[in-house]
Structure formats: structure tokens, C-alpha cells
Design brief:
alpha+beta; 7 helices; 8 strands; 21% helix; 29% strand
Length: 314
Amino acid sequence: MRRTTSVDIERPAGPSGDLVLTGRGRDLLTTADGTSVAVAQAHTSVVIDFVGDRRIRSVHADPPVDGIDALIGARAGSGFRRQLAEAVPELASTGSLVHLLLDDTTPAVLISGSSLAREGLLTLVADRGRARLPFGICAGWQHGGAMEEAIAETGVPLLGWGPPAPDLGDGSDPDAWHDMPALAPASMRRRRRLDVAAVDGRLVVDVRYRDSYWERDGAETVVHEYAVEAAVDLAERRLVGAVAHPGPLPAPECPTAAASAADLAGVGLDELRDVVRERFVGVSTCTHLNDVLRSLADVGALWDAAEATGAVLS
């Protein structure tokens, strides 16, 4: 079973206009004989008054979700995931594509600021208003680290300029990813691919995650990238273990966060999101890696959907 998702992060009306997040996703089952079956597809759209107070102007989902309109007027930053759980409490438990796409709203808003900084429209000052900067939030934002030094010297945080983003597919499988349109310069995209297969009573999971930026010349460059390998006890729905492999990341301290993935051993899928939120904090972790680890909570529901087709062992 393969789940692919993408969230496009764009400002169609320019830097002072609304931030538009367009989510797309697909769950694709490949049977033993090589036949591919689309088990689920989804599309979301979230429009945010970013320059104002980052409140949601509109939100849409396909398949439709009852109660989602309660999110209109909510702030899209810190606290949004709590509001999402309150507005549609049954959504997370389904492990649905719509939930995963909407769950990416907060980090998408967070990283969207890098496009403004790259265009010279956002600067930070390390020696004034210091409490407002997110030092201590993750490995890359350590006091005394390269991020703080860059802000003090240039007013611009380390944003992961480059390297060029290689294709995440090998070109031999046209169904490897769902369709994604080309993006305009100064746009960003968060992309995730999650593969699940049953082997000897375990679910073997392979994840690839990337945030990328479209430069002025149209080139795509990597901002954040991780690969994660995990195993889940199929009967108990509990993580046997997880290993994270860092790719390109903004600060030299960032890759140290990869070791935190090992702390998920023994955690049940139904408690995984809460565990990551409560325990994976501070400079030994990475907020972007945490987003990848949170998505592992959907593995059980994803495999159940595969088995429900009756084609898993055909």
C-alpha cells in the first residue's frame, strides 16, 4: 500500500496576499500480480490571511467532511491541530487522507515564511525581541548554534538554500505519485510518500518526506528532507522500532534530531500522535521529523483499507 500526499504552499496574489494551501493525496494498492488499485483520493484547500492574524478565510475538502466549516476564523498557526480535533473529532481516528492533509496546515504556515525571507521581505533580529524567536524548539534552533549566529549576522535564518531536488521517482513507474502541477517561483511544496507491506506478522513501513522551494529560475531546491524506516507489530498495532535518515536540512545541528525516532519503540499506533506531541520536544528533536513520525499513526488504518479490498493476497 502506498500513500502519497502533497501540500502546495502559494501566494497567488503576491507576498501581501492570502496564503493558499492546496492538498492532494492518494492511497494506492499494488497487488501480488502488479495490478494497481486506487483505494482513496483526496483534495483540500485552505486559504489563510497570513499578513493579518493568520486566520482561515475558507476551507474545503473532497471527500467532504461535516463540521469542517467550524475551522473558518481559526488561527492557522499554533493550536490549529487542537481546533481541528475539536471541530471534527472523528477525523483523526479514521487515518484518512483528508485528516493528514489538514494536519499539515500548521507546519505549512510555519515554513511558508521562508519564501518571504528569501525575497528579502522578512528579517529577524537576534538581540531584540529575543523571546519571540523559537530558540529551543528543535535541534536547528539551539542557543549558540549556527541558526542564531546567522540571524545575528544577517537577520535571515538558515533556510536550506539548495541543493537541487532530485526526482523522488525513478521514472519507471508512472503511478508512483499522484498528479502534481508545476509551481510558480517563490512557491513551496511539502511532499510525503509512505509505503506499507506485510512481512512475517509485521507491517514494514518506508517513508520519504521533503519540503522544497521553487527558485526564481524555476529550479526546485530542498529545504527539509527525511527518510524513515519503521516496523509495526501487525497484531498489537505497536511500533517495534523506527529509524530516521536525515537528508538536506537547514542547520548543521539539525541531523542530530534523527536519533529521537528510536524512542518510538513500543508505542501503540493509537497513542502515537499524543506521544510525539508530549514527549518529542526541545533540541533533541525536529518539528519536521515529528510531522513524519506523527503520520505513522495512520499505518494501521491504511493497511485495514488495503485488506478491505480483498485483493491484498490475490
